[in-house]
Design goal:
525 residues, alpha/beta, 8-stranded parallel β-sheet, 7-stranded mixed β-sheet, 16 helices, 23 strands, globular
Length: 525
């Protein structure tokens, strides 16, 4: 106890001495923010401390010296001070299934900030399989951004040009992940051969290979069977995409990535079947990252059997929401670190867009896939995981912020409350209750898949790169001020892979030196 107190006093002394030094390094015109009286929660620990921000960075964490006069003081007494959330999976302003998701970068990011997310990684889609055209188009879409963002790039067809462009995107434009669809036959889906070539190129570039894991041929076949049986409503979506097709594709991707020996990131894991494959691979030491999404932790497939078409259709996403047992398995997989982080797969379509699946003109195959979550993620994950005791507060920070920063090679620039980190900070009131509703959210969607859900715990202040952008229900943002963040290649997941490759070569004891006997003479091959 005495030793702990001594360390704390030493820390405070160092803080006070360094506080003035760090402040002097910033220009006098920079805004200074003092968050006082709160409990700082990082992925490794939590502790009482003040936080001082200047020039877009956290300059110190501890006890603020009396001589420091901040421009803004935020009283966080009784509240938690945490790193801003990082959503690793969004689809803003995305053309899909004959529609365009109704949140653009401005509206989607406003929703994110209101929900405590200060950075997101959006999926850029190629234009007619052209990666560079797709990247340029997404940069144009993001011109009205109000917060930090980055891109993953999807690969929908293999060619020498795609291989070349992947290198340009990694080395020049800060892309360090590429997504391959194993579903959406005839549109986005790649073959196993293309998957292997893509995995190999990702390894060369130090980029993370991501997969949407569903067996696209199996889904296409099952959709026809379901329709032939007269099932046209949203429940047909769930029935046509059984969990074992997700499990099969997850297993296949894991084995192909093992063949190449490159890290694999499985997006939006929704079923026990997929979990089993990821858990088995991780237990054997394979570098496989499993991503949960907030909807999968909170909701189940029963929504798609609602007699109200609009309520049922708003829950249509892929892979689909699963059974209650799958939901419970996902939650416990996060607590056991079988799954590593939580995204949203935020791709919102309003009720008019979802109505494309209304019979007789359409059926469940015409309903644009996607649900909301960019504003709700931090709140519902806290409610489902922390308030139930499944994970700790530090675990919450890890799965909503720190893990994403580490995986995509941004840590400790982001994902931690520490001196030198970007000042992406939230103040969270764990006692405040609120009800989620489309009437109060900031998405452009006229529906909310979490409609009417009571949650305990609310983001009350959001600070993005040193600016208070959300406080007391009011935004303070300027369109076009969002930063495109370059993600460096060869992140932590790649460390030591070359040693593994060398060990594998030695272990196979090949090639052998051979000989044969010819008329009494030994001939070396």
């Amino acid at each position: 106890m005495t030793r702990t107190k001594g360390r704390q006093e030493s820390f405070r002394s160092v803080f006070v001495c360094s506080c003035f030094f760090l402040l002097c390094a910033w220009e006098s015109v920079a805004e200074t923010i003092h968050i006082k009286g709160g409990t700082v929660v990082n992925a490794d620990r939590k502790f009482r401390a003040d936080v001082l921000i200047n020039g877009g960075k956290i300059v110190a964490v501890g006890t603020v010296a009396s001589g420091v006069i901040p421009d803004t003081v935020i009283d966080a007494t009784g509240k938690l001070v945490m790193p801003g959330g990082i959503d690793p999976h969004t689809h803003l302003d995305m053309p899909f299934m004959g529609q365009i998701s109704c949140d653009d970068f401005m509206s989607g990011q406003l929703a994110a900030l209101a929900g405590g997310t200060t950075m997101h990684i959006d999926f850029a889609l190629p234009v007619k399989h052209d990666l560079m055209d797709g990247f340029k188009k997404w940069r144009e879409k993001a011109k009205n951004s109000v917060m930090d963002y980055a891109f993953h790039m999807a690969v929908t067809k293999w060619s020498p040009q795609v291989e070349k462009d992947m290198g340009v995107l990694v080395n020049k434009f800060g892309i360090n992940s590429f997504k391959f669809f194993m579903a959406y036959k005839g549109a986005l889906m790649v073959t196993d051969e293309e998957l292997l070539k893509g995995f190999e190129r990702c390894k060369q570039l130090g980029a993370i290979a991501q997969v949407h894991a569903e067996n696209g041929d199996g889904v296409y076949f099952k959709q026809l069977v379901v329709v032939q049986n007269g099932i046209l409503g949203p429940e047909g979506h769930a029935l046509s995409r059984p969990s074992y097709l997700e499990g099969e594709a997850t297993a296949r991707a894991i084995r192909l990535s093992r063949l190449v020996n490159t890290p694999l990131y499985v997006v939006h894991v929704m079923s026990e079947d997929a979990l089993a494959e990821i858990g088995a691979a991780r237990a054997q030491g394979q570098r496989v990252v499993g991503e949960a999404v907030s909807s999968g932790l909170t909701l189940d497939e029963s929504l798609m059997w609602n007699p109200d078409f609009h309520i049922a259709a708003q829950a249509v996403m892929s892979p689909p929401l699963r059974k209650e047992k799958d939901r419970q398995a996902l939650r416990h997989a996060l607590s056991a670190s079988i799954l590593s982080l939580v995204g949203t797969d935020h791709a919102v379509f309003n009720s008019t867009q979802k109505a494309a699946g209304l019979p007789p003109a359409g059926d469940f195959r015409s309903i644009p896939n996607g649900v909301n979550g960019i504003e709700e993620r931090m709140h519902v994950v806290w409610n489902e995981m922390v308030n139930t005791g499944i994970i700790t507060q530090s675990d919450f920070v890890k799965i909503t912020s720190t893990a994403a920063a580490q995986i995509f090679n941004l840590y400790p620039q982001k994902g931690v409350i520490a001196p030198g980190a970007d000042a992406d900070v939230i103040v969270f009131d764990p006692e405040q209750e609120h009800v989620i509703s489309a009437k109060r959210h900031h998405s452009r969607s006229d529906m909310n898949v979490y409609e009417g859900k009571l949650v305990k715990g609310k983001v009350v202040v959001t600070i993005s790169v040193g600016r208070v952008v959300w406080k007391d229900g009011i935004f303070n943002v300027t369109s076009g001020t969002g930063r495109f963040i370059h993600l460096p290649p060869f992140g932590p997941l790649f460390e030591g892979l070359d040693l593994q490759d060398g060990r594998a070569i030695r272990a196979r004891k090949a090639p052998l030196r051979r000989f044969f006997e010819w008329k009494g003479t030994r001939v070396e091959l």
